[in-house]
Amino acid sequence: MISPFLLAALCLLLSIIYKPFEINPDALLQWNASPPRILLLTAHPDDECFFFAPTILALQRSSLSPEIFSLCLSTGNADGMGERRKGELGRSLDILGVDEDKRWIIEHPQLQDNMTQQWEAEVIAEVVRPFVTEHHITSVLTFDMKGISSHPNHFSLPVGASHLVKSLSSSANTSVPRLFSLTTVSVLPKYTGMSSALFARLTLASQSFSVSEPTVDSLPVFISGIPDYLTTVRAILAHDSQMVWFRYLYMTFSRYMWVNEWVEFKT
Ligand SMILES: [Zn+2]
Predict the structure, then answer these.
(1) Residue 115 counted as domain residue
(2) Looking at 54-149, which runs of residues are DSSP E strands?
(3) pLDDT band at 196 (very low <50, low <70, confident <90, very high)
């Protein structure tokens, strides 16, 4: 039988983490763009929900009403399931709220899903360029140089996107997007699951006592609440070709199911 004390503690925990929590979410957006146009740049179908869901879901609540686009640079064909995975990505993005006309998946001979291959920055820049320019993208969101899981396809992306931003900066008549990367945390905190949502909130709340208002330079942090977490689980389950046993462990223990921290990538 559960003691009243434990039951009360559980209710308190659930009430604390039920609602989403964000610090400076609009720092990812260009304030002078109306609406801001955000491009999520990923390497494989399932990256969008395994790693970026807290941000995708939170940005849709922003008062700046950003338009959110998704560009995935491979079909994830390492096991010959690329065609199937394209459909899974579509269903996942439906659940995460990215419109059908704002999402694309690339099939390129030099951008193949491969655990040992780093993609060339020049190739990434050339492939991404038309999507950025034609849709007037104002911010690009992608992995950092550790790629969360150290997958070389992942950490190729900030290098390629940075190459593109530099190239756009040097050409006149083109607006240049800002580039942000999702912070890779070390192994131990990476698998703290629901408790990561609690500790991240407590840390940010204690900081907000000492700093009255987040400045425009504060790093954006997105912490999912329980409804967002459940939406993320549904999006992951849409990738049914990937649902081996350790994916269930991932959903239970990964910090990225709950917390996303961003830094601007200096090009
Ligand atoms: Zn991936």
Answers:
(1) yes
(2) 67-72, 103-105, 139-143
(3) confident
Length of the chain: 267
How remote is the CA of residue 217 from the centroid of ligand 1, in Å? 29
Q: What is the pLDDT of residues 94-140, one digit of tens each?
A: 999 999 999 999 999 999 999 999 999 999 999 999 999 999 999 99
Q: Facing residues of 22 across strands?
A: 222
Number of domains in the chain: 1
The rounded distance, in Å, linking the Cα atoms of 201 and 191 is 17
How many Å apart are CA 141 and CA 102, to the nearest integer?
15
Residue 214 inside a domain? The answer is no
Q: Which amino acid is it at 169?
A: S
Neighbouring CB atoms inside 10 A of 142's CB total 30
Residue 12 CA, ligand 1 centroid: distance in Å: 35
Range of the domain at 90: 33-184+260-264
Distance 152 CA to ligand 1 centre (A): 9
